[in-house]
Amino acid sequence: MATGEYSTRVEWLEHRNRVLEAVTAIASLMAANHDIDMVLDRITALTRDLTNSDMAYISLNDAKETFIQYSTGVQTEGYRHIRMPLGTGVLGKAAIGRGTVQTADYLIDPSIIHLDNIDEIVRTEGVRAILGVPIRVHGALHGALLLANRTPGVFSPTIVDTVTTIAHHTAVALDQSRRFRAVSATLAGLRESFDDSAERLQALQTVVDLDALLSESLAQRRGLDHFAHTAAKALGSDLAILDAQGELAARGSIHGEPELPAFASELGRQAFISGRPAIRDRITATAATSNSEHLGSVIVFDPVPEQLLPRVTRTAVFLGILLLFERTQRGEERQRDQALIDDLLQRRKLTPSGAQRLEALLHTGPLSVAVLRTVGDSRTQLDRKTRDSLSFSAERHGIDGRRFLSVEHHDHICILLPAQESEDILRSFISAMKSAAADVQCALGGRVDHATDFAQAHAIALTAMSALRALGHTNRIYRADDLGSLGIILAAQNADPHAYTPLSEIQALIDYDVAHGTELTRTAWLYSENHENIKITAGMLVVHENTVRQRLVRISELLGSNWQGSPRFLDIRLGLRIWALKTT
């Protein structure tokens, strides 16, 4: 979706938030009501409101025609009850599913198949611009969701995207209503006949109950774990939910937590490709999909009987809706946090929503800025594994998502988290990533008490990261203030590997130690760090003081008799410290 249609990123994010709220409202209506007429009337009203259009309406198809069934903003009876052959006009073209259809000025558009009587109705209503998006249910066309304005013009990509999103959920509402009516009609017939179909009656009633439970779970918006628990309880079986990559995303347990078999991911993929549940070794898998995209899989730890497979399939349908909701919500949160980081770095005045987010982060005290990189990747991404590891590590220390922030920024991940718990959280994160066979580099910058502190704290963290990259260390935390001026030297070296390095001042010692198996470099380092105190140096090396004196003579021969003299000693000492950092 293009943000250029709005003057600020915040206006665009606010619009996307309204779309998310509208989709949630539709899901809540679906959960609370089986009155499809009321739900679709509400959808037209929400669509018109979100797009600021003159009118919105839903058309439904029969064998040869499409007709307006639900509308808002229409003024004339003729337009409100238009029926037209499939393929004619915008309404008819959208209803046969040839993608999104729009016209900037209907009556003079030569690409539209016109009918005189329909043109007269359109002229009377005063309609000029029309947009139509097909409504598909399991690949079958059922109609279209349309907008119309009484002034000519092209509908923006944002409006097209908004209507497309709502059309998808309109299809879900139509599908749920169709299934509910079919099941209800069957139940009514079974109750009237009251024959030997008691078992089937119970199975159908279970499907209705399952729909009610899962719809309620969606409406409560309590996340994937709650949904998995609800689904397990409704199905009467332990289950697991896998993401599109086949990774475990949530568990629903009523008896225990059975081990997830190695072939579970493959079985979920098989269910997606075949379009029906797959069963293997007492495991049943079904896929959650959206159009041709595999969103995830439901893995049930039981071989589900044929007559009960619709229950598992329905669970996967609701899982798909939930995953689409979560994807939209995560996208909005990432855009919001990214906008906040950009504003803080550029020292711009924060938007009201950005100021509110920063205030929530600072609510319990000062923050620390950390930067992360995944070793070996050309671009570090905040993928599911990294995001989940960060969230889990924060939760282990009592920090929820409202109290920390993580976004991708150029070649690293930027994190804002409570200063007091920052090192503990990052250690847990590094440990989790290491267990997942991923090496990371992590640097902590300055402290943030106010918005104006962030840019400098972030710059300090980047300097520490550059120093860390020059040293080549992984899976440890570096604080910028631990390195001091040495961090600046290492950062410059990382930027230009051919630049001067103080290591060149002690290269003779390093080479000698390699050739002879001695410890002259370590002796020189401890000697300089302990203010040239031979006794302390000998104690740390666990050797006699005379041994230290003999080594100092050899060091002087290799580095020159003035190696302890100013100003050269400063460069040598910096070289010794870099050597120590690289080797410890």
Characterise this structure.
It is a single chain. The chain has 21 helices and 16 strands. The radius of gyration is 33 Å and the shape is elongated. The relative contact order is 0.06. The mean pLDDT is 80. By secondary structure, it is α+β, with helices and mostly antiparallel strands.
Cα distance spanning the termini: 49 Å
Q: Treating each run of at least 4 consecutive H or I residues as one helix, how many helices? A: 21
The structural class is: alpha+beta
Give the CA-based shape. elongated
Strand content: 15-25%
Strand count, sense and barrel status of the largest sheet are: 6 strands, antiparallel
Number of strands: 16
Question: From the alpha-carbon coordinates, what is the Rg to the nearest angstrom?
Answer: 33 Å
Low-confidence parts: none
Mean pLDDT, as a whole number? 80
Strand order of the largest sheet: 3-2-1-6-5-4
Task: Name the helicity range.
Answer: 40-55%
Question: Any descriptors?
Answer:
584 residues; alpha+beta; five-stranded antiparallel β-sheet; 16 strands; 53% helix
Secondary-structure map:
Elements: H1 9-32, H2 36-51, E1 55-61, E2 65-72, H3 77-80, E3 83-85, H4 89-95, E4 101-103, H5 116-125, E5 129-137, E6 140-149, H6 157-193, H7 198-220, H8 224-235, E7 239-243, E8 248-252, H9 264-274, E9 278-280, E10 283-290, E11 293-300, H10 309-345, H11 352-361, E12 367-374, H12 384-396, E13 405-409, E14 412-418, H13 422-435, E15 440-448, H14 454-471, E16 477-479, H15 480-483, H16 485-495, H17 507-516, H18 520-529, H19 534-541, H20 545-559, H21 568-583
Helix pairs in contact: 1-2, 1-6, 1-7, 1-10, 2-6, 6-7, 7-8, 7-10, 8-10, 10-11, 12-13, 14-16, 18-20, 18-21, 19-20
